[in-house]
Amino acid sequence: MIIDPQAAGPLAGVTVVALEQAVSAPMCTRTLADFGARVIKVENPDGGDFARYYDDVVEGQAAHFVWVNRGKESVTLNLKSGAGVELLHTLLDRADVLVSNLAPGAIDRLGLSAAELEGRHPDLISLSIDGFGAGGPLSHKRAYDLLVQAESGVCSVTGTAGEPAKPGPPVADVTTGLYAALSIVAALCGRLRRGPGPGTTIAVSLFDTMAEMMGYHLTYARHSGIDQQPLGMSSPAVAPYGAYGTADGQTVVLGTTNDREWQRLATDILDRPDLAADERFRTNPGRVAHRGELDTAIGTWCAHNDLADIQAAADAAGIGNSRYNTPSEVLAHPQLSERDRWRGIDTPNGPIPSLLPPAVIEGYHPPMGAVPGLGEHTDAVLTEIGCDAGEIAQWRDAGAIGPAYAPAGTAHAR
Fold it and tell me: Is residue 380 pLDDT above 80, yes or no?
């Protein structure tokens, strides 16, 4: 089926039920929502996704939560009650995909193991995100972004020698969420070719994703016997490639990726034909071995020139370059503003700016839906699946669903 991108998103008509928290699974489902899928986020009535309360910097809301939860509907179900679990199954009867990233063993305790889902929801695509994957000595452990980055070696190649660091963004969570979304899209594409069903079970672990991200470093260590040391704002693979202070107090990043670029950097920018002719620097392995001398030469030249002049010279010579920016500076970056990359989205506490998703699909405008309040859509979704007002009141009295939603600022809002 070919979908007109002007009429609907590529995933229009796909319904996703999410048992999710923190970042990895929410990033997966937000990505699916950005492409037009309907995402029903099932939350615990007692507080919901704990990422809602990491901080309160976004008009009283958490920055992590508003980042990865736009465009979803929030339904509060008490999955410790039999009635709550049955309501979940009713949602799954009408869903195409289930995404979860609960604590180890939680999904099985809810009666949602692969075998049980296959029996009750035979056409469902079920994807679970966990920390370390099934069947290993660490499979039982909780896994957060930093823990997995440390276990997989990512921290050992980040920072500087003797001072390992966690990459700033939650790369284990984000990349796992994106791999999960890609896997779901692959399963849906398979159904376009083969027709509906049978159900598909997919598992993605943060550890396996980070091991994949470490591909270069693992390959290098296996075949050289050397654990490469972190180099801060540089790369162990190529040289020269790094950050240098400028005369006007800025930081410029210059990079070369091949021998021709190095020759242009040495002759056209540094005006150092002696470096260009030096046999030690002729090939990249030699430059890597002597990167200290090159960094000194480049750093000395940059220290006597302003950022704008360095970047103009680098652009003229065809040398990759950039300016080191802080998050506050990126907010005002002209590459975002002049390309109209910001949009306003609604939240329970008012509108906020949000970046468009990275993929630009001609003729398709991402929905950029609202960030949901806890339980905001419970009554509407239950009505949609056949519950009348009396039944909803009974479920609420029995504790199977959360309290009636009250917008921010009203008496019952959390």
Answer: yes
